[in-house]
Write a structure and sequence with these properties.
Distance between the termini: 37 Å
CATH superfamily of the largest domain: P-loop containing nucleotide triphosphate hydrolases
CATH class of the largest domain: Alpha Beta
Structural class: alpha/beta
Number of domains: 2
Radius of gyration: 17 Å
Shape: globular
CATH topology of the largest domain: Rossmann fold
Oligomer: single chain
CATH architecture of the largest domain: 3-Layer(aba) Sandwich
Number of helices: 10
Strand order of the largest sheet: 6-7-8-3-9-10
Strand content: 25-35%
Largest sheet: 6 strands, mixed
């Protein structure tokens, strides 16, 4: 479904990504774990056309999207929920959700997807007229995910969805990611909470200073001594 081959990105003189090879098969949850500054967000931004330059190819749905603009990439069914939520604080919850569907003309399908969002996040229905900036951090993350789903993605990419959330709320977000995947959406998850990421994903990649250093089925990665020490806080 999504395939990166030899993807490299430079920021000035910094080699931020070094020959990344990564695949996201249809119907799966794939996770990328790594420390701050490893290049995880850079990779997502390059996929979405928010970062340019470098070398390598990005194949999406059997099409080379390496040089498409972001609008075309979103229209093709690839959607990013960025780190930090980035909801529109002065707009209502309902207006934020509607903006997620701004490129869609299928009004009946948009209404159905809105109801699906409310089913996943009942709290959003309760706060439809509330300004997004007045929501709690967890509610803003729900809104960011809901807004992404309103684009009707084939592949949903999430950048640190649990960042800054209380453990109970973070666990709820991870449960919803599972539910989204069960409902047919492929997921690429970038997450510093390696415990949770490896628990819900099918396959994982480890990114260190711009390079993929390991990749395997998540149970295999979770059992690896180096991974347990570096990312799971175990000796």
């Amino acid at each position: 479904m999504l395939k990166l081959e030899g993807l490299s990105v430079f920021y000035g003189g910094i080699h931020a990504l070094r020959g990344i090879n990564l695949e996201v098969p249809e119907g799966k949850i794939i996770t990328l774990i790594g420390a701050n500054g490893a290049g995880k967000s850079t990779m997502l931004n390059r996929i979405m056309g928010l970062v340019r330059g470098g070398s390598g190819t990005i194949q999406w749905d059997r099409r080379d999207i390496s040089f498409l603009d972001t609008r075309e990439i979103v229209a093709s069914g690839l959607v990013l929920i960025p780190e930090g939520r980035h909801v529109f604080p002065n707009l209502t919850v309902e207006e934020n959700l509607n903006l997620g569907a701004y490129m869609r003309n299928d009004k009946a399908a948009v209404r159905r997807d809105r109801e699906k969002c409310y089913a996943l996040f009942p709290r959003l229905r309760e706060r439809l007229r509330q300004s997004a900036g007045t929501l709690s951090g967890g509610e803003q993350q729900m809104l960011a995910v809901g807004r992404g789903l309103m684009s009707s993605p084939k592949l949903l990419m999430l950048d640190e969805p649990s960042l800054g959330l209380a453990p109970l709320v973070a666990n709820m977000i991870f449960s919803i990611i599972r539910e989204i995947n069960k409902n047919g959406t492929t997921v690429l998850l970038i997450e510093q909470n390696a415990h949770a990421a490896l628990e819900i994903a099918d396959y994982g990649y480890v990114l260190e200073t711009g390079e993929i250093t390991m990749h395997d089925a998540c149970p295999v990665l979770a059992a690896d001594g180096g991974i347990r020490k570096a990312y799971l806080g175990e000796d």
